[in-house]
């Protein structure tokens, strides 16, 4: 019997944990069935009785439900009490005796089994599948307790193999074969996993690892890295590399690297130019330094050192606001070749979107050699952005020079401020067709190079607008003075103009 306070404490613990087992484990009382009844009474009445009396009997419906559960689920007293939470085993046994006397378990002490019968009964028990032990015991004619007793006796002595049925032997052999097959599959899957992980560590390809796309040299390096753990013959099969090729590349790898010095030079040029140079400009840089090397070797070294120039394309900024003023003809007609500086200029506006905000660039590009004649950077694509850029560009013109300035049909180049500046400086206007990007391909090509080399593939998370503008300005200075162009003979724009004595 439990005091009122003890019952209430158990109920509150259950409501706290929402678990009968947790409450009972912490208190050490009561039984699960008792706690279920207390909680039910508490939820129904809002409290529990303070008197230390309890019902002396269950309802007839509860008794019948318990007996039915006992008969339906294997005739196990403990299982029924555990699932229903009531009653005790002794009380349930009495209910079964009263309500279903014909279903009570009867002791079969008088039945004696021979040794063969015992072995057959135990074999049926062990291979019964989903059938209950009680059903097997009923067929044999003994209680399940006696059946398990025979099992313990026979297994402790050991049953001869020849006593087992042929079907059992066959099943065991099949299971052994399946286990062996599964072990082999697990072994090869683990080998493939280790190979891919090691390949990711050693080769480091940004596009992902595909064993079938690796060169035989890379496969040889990979095999040697993982070989202590697996057999060579197995690894050669997995990576699909002939043994003769493996032996050849292993021998070659043991030789000194004849490109060791130039390899370091290539990496230095690549990093010094902010990872913007591809193999052609790296080859030209080496040539300018007096190092003669084929482009094929440069490409191979770049591949081995994973020197990759990232290229990404994003949505283009659109400045078209309708037909604000009459459009002028397209004078250039996509002929961007100029015989001298300041003959043909192209311009446009491009947008840079970073976490700190948006930045706009308006450059003036000379078609003669790709020089950026002038540029302005702002956080707003307004009239001042393009007009200031035009004023800077005009300031470098000689009195006898008259440049053709080609633009798209954006609103900035159709406002009166732009038109007045063009007329006052005797400049010639030229415009692309509406929505025809190729008509201004020279400027679009500059923007693509700019963003591939400077913007894409970089993290701008902690960069402010002011810092970004400063970095962009530094890039444009580098573009004019240091960046080499293959079309100019592998030298920078300013050096090219110096070679032509166009500048001092």
Automatic annotation (TrEMBL):
Q: Which UniProt keywords apply?
A: Coiled coil
Return the NCBIfam families for the record: transpos_IS3
Report the function annotation for this chain.
Involved in the transposition of the insertion sequence.
Record protein name field: IS3 family transposase
Where do the coiled-coil regions begin and end?
Answer: 165-192
Molecular function (Gene Ontology), one example: nucleic acid binding
Q: Name one Pfam family in it.
A: rve
Where is each Integrase catalytic domain found?
Answer: 337-501
> What InterPro entries would the database entry show?
Homeodomain-like_sf, HTH-like_dom, Integrase_cat-core, RNaseH-like_sf, RNaseH_sf, Transpos_IS3, Transposase_IS3/IS150/IS904
One biological process term in Gene Ontology = DNA integration
């Amino acid at each position: 019997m439990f005091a009122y306070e003890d019952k209430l404490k158990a109920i509150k613990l259950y409501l706290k944990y929402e678990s009968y087992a947790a409450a009972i484990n912490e208190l050490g009382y009561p039984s699960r069935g008792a706690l279920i009844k207390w909680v039910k009474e508490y939820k129904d009445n809002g409290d529990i009785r303070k008197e230390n009396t309890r019902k002396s009997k269950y309802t007839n419906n509860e008794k019948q439900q318990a007996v039915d559960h006992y008969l339906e689920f294997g005739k196990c007293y403990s299982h029924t009490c555990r699932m229903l939470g009531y009653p005790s085993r002794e009380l349930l046994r009495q209910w079964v005796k009263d309500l279903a006397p014909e279903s009570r378990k009867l002791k079969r002490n008088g039945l004696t089994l021979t040794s063969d019968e015992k072995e057959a009964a135990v074999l049926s028990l062990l291979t019964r599948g989903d059938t209950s032990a009680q059903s097997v015991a009923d067929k044999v004619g003994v209680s399940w307790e006696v059946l398990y007793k025979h099992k313990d006796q026979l297994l402790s002595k050991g049953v001869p193999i020849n006593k087992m049925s042929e079907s059992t032997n066959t099943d065991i052999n099949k299971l052994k074969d399946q286990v062996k097959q599964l072990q082999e599959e697990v072994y090869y899957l683990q080998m493939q996993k280790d190979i891919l992980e090691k390949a990711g560590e050693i080769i480091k390809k940004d596009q992902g690892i595909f064993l079938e796309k690796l060169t035989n040299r890379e496969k040889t390096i990979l095999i040697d890295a993982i070989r202590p753990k697996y057999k060579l013959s197995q690894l050669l099969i997995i990576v699909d590399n002939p043994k003769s090729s493996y032996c050849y590349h292993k021998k070659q790898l043991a030789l000194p690297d004849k490109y060791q010095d130039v390899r370091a030079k290539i990496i230095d040029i690549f990093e010094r130019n902010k990872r913007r140079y591809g193999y052609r400009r790296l080859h030209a840089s080496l040539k300018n330094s007096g190092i003669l090397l084929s482009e094929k070797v440069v490409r191979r070294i770049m591949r081995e050192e994973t020197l990759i120039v990232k290229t990404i394309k994003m949505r283009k900024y659109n400045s078209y606001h309708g037909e604000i003023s009459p459009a002028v003809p397209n004078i250039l007609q996509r002929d961007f070749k100029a015989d001298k500086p300041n003959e043909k200029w192209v311009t446009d506006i491009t947008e840079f979107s970073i976490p700190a905000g948006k930045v706009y660039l308006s450059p003036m590009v000379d078609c003669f050699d790709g020089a950026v004649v002038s540029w302005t950077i702002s956080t707003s694509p307004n009239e001042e952005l393009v007009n200031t850029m035009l004023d800077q560009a005009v300031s470098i013109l000689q009195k006898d020079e008259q440049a053709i300035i080609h633009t798209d049909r954006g609103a900035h180049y159709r406002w009166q401020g732009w038109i007045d500046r063009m007329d006052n400086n005797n400049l010639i206007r030229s415009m692309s067709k509406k929505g025809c990007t190729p008509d201004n391909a020279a400027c679009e090509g500059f923007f693509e190079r700019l963003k591939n080399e400077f913007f894409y593939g970089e993290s701008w998370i902690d960069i402010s607008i002011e810092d970004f503008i400063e970095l962009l300005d530094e890039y444009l200075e580098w573009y004019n003075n240091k960046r080499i162009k293959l079309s100019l003979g592998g030298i920078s724009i300013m050096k090219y103009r110096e070679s032509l004595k166009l500048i001092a």
